Amino acid sequence: MKKVAFVAPTYPVLSETFIRTEVDSVKACGHPVCVMTFTKHNDCSEFDYDTHTIGEKADFSLIRTLSPTGMLKALHFITKQQSMPKLSLFKYSLQLALQMRKEEINHVHAHFAQHTCTHAIAAAKMMGISNSFVAHGHDLYETPFDVDLKVNNSNFVIAVCKDMENDLKKINDDKIRLLHCGVKTNQFKPPALSAEKNQGGTPIKLVFLGRLVEQKGLNYLLQSLAELNKPHLVTLDIIGDGELRTNLQQQVYKLGLSKFVRFHGSKSPHWVSRNLATFDCLVAPFCVSHSGCVDTGPLVLKEAMAVGVPVITTDLMGCKEIVAPGTGLIVKQKNSQSLSQAITEFINYSPEKHEDMRRLARLNVENNFDALNQAKSLSNWIEACAS
Fold it and tell me: Which of 7, 57, 106, 247 is 20 to 30 A away from residue 345, measured at CA?
């Protein structure tokens, strides 16, 4: 099977576990894999595959193995793109090509439709191998650069939700593939049912998991808790960190929610997989930021449902595809009143209803978002590519 190089801006990143999951799952399909990144963190030693820093240890003696025709195609692509300095792009793409040649890479797969994708396309052309990339939210809707050019110069492009698929198909219908980010269902498992869970008088344990940035909509969640008739019936644990933490903590104080809301900071993926199931409901009030950034296929929704935790989220893009009937509630974005009503509805569900939602949530992920099944589709597309 083809050896696949995954290209990422920085690796690994806590908020980008979808890349790690995909690498592991493609490897489990039988592909040799490695990661090429511009910034490598020290904890890469935990992986059972190689991680390389782009631009380091490029073997220029291998330049003769690159395709002369491919070099011309790469130069043509580099000249046509407008978002990056051309000389720098050529330099790093050449070094990436040489590094991948040394690793005997047959296909390069980039995450994000920005500089990672641009370098991967140019390097693939130099080598005469196939390439693909995954588009996400901010790189397609907040800061898009040369998207048409990148789509048309790739063998195929992954859209992570149906709305994105429709948008990208306007560029090139034949090259777009729909593939939701998957969850390792063998690692995210529901616990045994507890007889004490959701008994009368016990506060409902809500959890928010993600970066504390505008598009996560946490300020609307806090406002919705202040609008509850009986806020003492819930608690909210906030797992994550970010630029808005101080502002959000001040909002909690001003709204009088300090008894019910706790900030825990960032936690590792292992902590999340072990502790997520202890909550009754994950609330993810995603919204479109003022700059246009939007979450297009949030993995956190799938991880929560994988451990049997129902979700409350908004009607944005991939969210409405992830939350199947009976697995959670969907509300309008940036609407604290609607969110407060959904939380109240969830509070009033019977224990039997809560357990039924837990069961359906897990089943939904098993059937539609299992990482290995998703990787099998990606593997088939990679294998079918002509160089």
Answer: 247
